[in-house]
Write a structure and sequence with these properties.
34 helices; Rossmann fold; alpha/beta; 5 domains; seven-stranded parallel beta sheet; single chain; 17 strands; Arc Repressor Mutant, subunit A
Amino acid sequence: MKVTNKQLKKHLKTFFGFDRFKGKQEPVIQNLIAGNDTFVLMPTGGGKSMCYQLPSLLFEGTAIIISPLIALMKNQVDAMRSFTSDISVAHFMNSSLNKKQLKDVRDDVKAGKTKLLYVAPESLTKDENIEFLQKIIISFYAIDEAHCISEWGHDFRPEYRRIRPIIEEIGRAPIIALTATATPKVQHDILKNLEMLDANVYKSSFFRSNLYYEVRPKQNTEKQIIKFIKENKGKSGIIYCLSRKRVEELAETLVVNDIKALAYHAGMDSATRTDHQDRFLHEKVDVIVATIAFGMGIDKPDIRFVMHYDMPKSLEGYYQETGRAGRDGGEGRCIAFYSYKDIQKLEKFLQGKPVSEQEIGKQLIMETVAYAETSVCRPKMLLNYFGETLRQTCDNCDNCINPKPQFDGKQHILNSIKVVKEIKQKFNSEHVAHILAGKETSALKTYKHHKAKTFGIGKKHDVNFWNAVIRQSLVLGLFSKDIENYGHIKITKKGTGFSKSPHQIKLTKPVTFSSLESYMESPILHGVSVATTDTELFGLLRDLRKTISKKRGVPPFVVFQDPSLQDMAIQYPINMTELKQVVGVGEGKAAKYGKEFLELIQKYVEEKEIERPQDLIVKSVVNKSGLKIFIIQNIDKKLDLDDICAAKGLTLSELISEIESIVNSGTKLNINYYVDQILDQERQDDIWYYFDEAETDSIKDAMDELGEEEYSVDEIKLVRIKYLSEIGN
C-alpha cells in the first residue's frame, strides 16, 4: 500500500480531527504502511496509540493490538469508537466477555468490520483464539507497553516473552512494538526477544516541557499534600505510595479532609479496583492514592499532578509514573517526597534475593537517590539515564527555578578520574566516593582500596559531596555507567580528553536534605498557556461533557478532551464548520457530540453579547473549610482523632484544645467512641466522678487529686470534654 504524506494528513484530520502529526508519528506510520517491522520509543503523552490506530483504518483486515490490561483495552476501544459512528471498528477479546459477547466480536471481525482487535498475551495463547485468528486477514501486530517483555524492565511480564512464537503460529505480519520508557539495555532486550533486530527504530525525545519536576523533603508530608490539593481544587491527580497500608491510610486522610479520593492497590478485589478506576476516569473523584498496580490501564489525558509519597525503586518506574501527568500537553506537576530512611527500607526489601539481583536492585535504588539529591536540572538528569542528552536546562524544575550555588569543579573531577583509573574502572560511584572521602568501608578493605594511592585525596569533603561530583560528571559525559556490571564507572573519551587538557567546569553544590526544615512553594508552571480561555464557558462545557458522558456510559475525555473544550472557549464555534476547526474535533466527533455543544455555545454568546473570538484572563478562587467545622463533621463520622490530626497536621494536644473550644462554646460533641478506645470504664469513671464533684474544671487541680502518675493531661481533658458535652450542652 502506498499513501502520500498529504493523504495521510487528510486521513488524520478526517478520522481524528488533528491538522498535524506529533513528533515522529508520521514516519512511524509510513514505515508500518510500507510493511516494515517498527520499534517506537516515545514518552507518555507523545501519541504512541496514533502510530497504530490510524494505519489500522487504512489497511485491509484487522490489526491485532497486544495489551497487558483489560482496563487499558476498554479505554482504548471506547476512545476509538468515539471517533466514528460504527462501534464495530474496535473490539477487545479477553476473559471479561461472556460467550455471546465473544461470538458478536468474532462475527464483526470475520465480516471485516473490525479494524483493531485488542487482546491480552494470555488470550493470544489460547488454542481456540489461535485457530480463529489463523482464519482472518491480519494487517499487522502492535505490541503495546513492550517494556513488559524485558526482564530488565520495571514491569516485566513473563507471558510477554512468548509473543513471537505465537505470532509465527498464527501467521506472520509486520510488527510494531511500542513503549514509553526503556533504557538502552531494555530496548535491546525487546528487539532481541521479538526477533526484530533489523526493525526500523524511532526514538522521540523523553523531554516534555510541560512537566514540572520537584523533590521535597519528607516532612509534614500529609499537610503538604492536602495544602497542594486544596490549592488545586478540582484537578485530577495520582499519589503513589509503596505500601498498601500507606495507600489506605492516606486515602482516608484525604477523604476526611473533604478531598474526593479513593485507594487502589493489588490487595483489593478486581471489582473494587475497576470501580475505583472508573470513578476516577469519570471524574467522580479527583485523586487516586495507589501503589504501582495503578497506571498502565489509565488513558486519562488531563491528570494535572502525580505525587510520590515514597521514592520509587527505580528511575525507569518513576519516569513512567510521572509521565501520566499532562498527557494533553497541559499542566503537569510531578512532586516527590524524599527521605533517606525510605531508601533504607527499599534496600531491606532486597534481602534474601540472589546476590546478582541484590546488586542490580541496589544500583537502581542509588540512581533514585542520585536523582532526589541532585542539584542539577532534573529532566537533564532523567534524560541522561535514558541515554539522551538535553543540551539546555529545562527552566521548569525546582533546581532550575531555584538554582543552587556553583563552584569550579575542575580539580574535583580530575581527582575522581584518578580514582576511577587506579581501581581499573571496575567499581560503582558509591565505592569511588568513599575512596575520595577517605571513608573506610568493608568493601574498600576487601579490595584493599583503603591503601590505594588516591585514598582520601578529597577528604576535605564528605561522601555526599563526591557522589554529587560523580553524578554531574556523568551528566556532562565525562563518565559513563556500565549498568550490566552493577553500575561500574567508566571514563569516556571526553573524560580522557578533559584529564589531558583540563579546563574550568562549573558544578553545583549538593543538597543536604536532612538539614532542610521547609520546602519551596511550587511556582506557576512555564509553558502552559491558559490565559486566553473563557473560564465560565469552559466550566459549562465541562458540565455538559460530564452529563453526556454519564448518559453514554463513557469517561468524559472520550467525548472531548480538555484542549478541545479550551479551544471552544477561545473560538466560540457556533456551527459544524467552525467546530471542525477546533483542535481534536474531526468529522466523527463533530457529528456524534457536536450538536449539544454548539447549542450551548450559541446561547452563551448571545446572552453575553460576545464578539468572537474574545480572550479572557483566567481567575481562580481557593475555598478553604474552617477547622472547627472540619472537626465537628469528622467527629460526627466517628473518625479516629489521630486521623483528624494527620489530616490537619495537628498534634493530639492541639486537636484536644480545638475540641475544648468547640464544646465550651455550647456545641455538643460525642467523643465517647474515642475515649472508650484509650480508657477503660473504671478509669473514665474516676475522672468523671472527680469533675462531678469538683468546684472548678481546673486540669491542674484534677492532676493533683487524681495523680500525675496515674493519668495524663490529655486523658483528663478528654473525659472533661465528654462530661461538659453531656452534662453542660
